Amino acid sequence: MTDETKLDSLFEEARLHKALPSDDLMARVLADAQAVQDAASVKVVKPSYQPDRGRFWDLLGGWVGAASFATCAVLGIYLGYAGGDVIGFGATDFALEGSVLNDLSILAGDA
Amino acid sequence: MNRSMPFDADQTLSDDTLMVMFANGDPEAARELTIRHLGTVVAFAKRLIPSDADADDIAQEAMLRLWKIAGEWRPGEAKVTTWLYRVTRNLCIDRLRQKGFADIDTVAEPKDETPSVQAHLEQSARMDALNAALGELPERQRVAVMLRHIEGLSNPDIAEAMEISVEAVESLTARGKRMLKQALETRKKELGWT
Lengths: 111, 194
Fold this sequence. Notes:
The structure holds two protein chains of two kinds. Chain A is mainly alpha-helical. Chain A is built from five helices and four strands, in the order ααααββββα. Chain A has a two-stranded antiparallel ribbon with strand order 1-2. A two-stranded antiparallel sheet of chain A has the order 3-4. The radius of gyration of chain A is 42 Å and the shape is rod-shaped. Chain B is mainly alpha-helical. In chain B, about 65% of the residues lie in helices and about 0% in strands. In chain B, helix 2 packs across helix 4 (about 80-100), helix 3 packs across helix 4 (about 80-100) and helix 5 (about 120-135) crosses helix 8 (about 165-185). The interface of A and B includes residues 7, 8, 11, 18 and 29 of A.
């Protein structure tokens, strides 16, 4: 028998002589597999970020309050730019001195 | 939803298919993959690392990494076998370095954690001689020879497992086999070679 043949025979023997895994190791590996599958099956629902608009909306007074706020804001900005100019609102005119509004009768519906 | 498929005697599912089934939660896929590959991984690790306990730990870690990667496994891109060989080898190298084996080419002989020599069969004595001779080889030659001549991998598969070229595999296996013959010359008695 040549050295090459002896070596090949030894390799063949090694292929057949593989150490079997212990029952304990098998159990550990299968437990790991179960843990990985369990972790993957848990659906984690992350709450999507939503700004806390509810509280702010309540403070504003809802749609009515927001509309009033917006109107006042626009009016205030306009008055600031207009200075002492006269502003007409439909049939009622207001005379403005500086940034002071003298006649609020339009709000009462008076002519 | 039925997460498991019954395995019948005639059903031979590929490793790729089993990986997909595992990722979909099939527990039988895990069992089948374990039966197919754990023995090979353990045997391979035991030839690379002196301690049987460490080899078992490494085998468990290699399989755990396989479970974790199942969701990203792409059928046809790599083989489960070569992937496991690669991971196991890298884990063994890391463990050897942690244990202070700065030169991984020179690993101490396996500690005798088994019953007395008298309890060994002649076959075990030949295997011990082979493992000791393999331990004398440089790490890359040792791995290439083992994968080629004991694990039975093709050169392209070895190249994939070791992340080297096929030409490099051929060179390593040729040189490794020559060195192994020389190392076995001093162990003729255990081998029963006259």
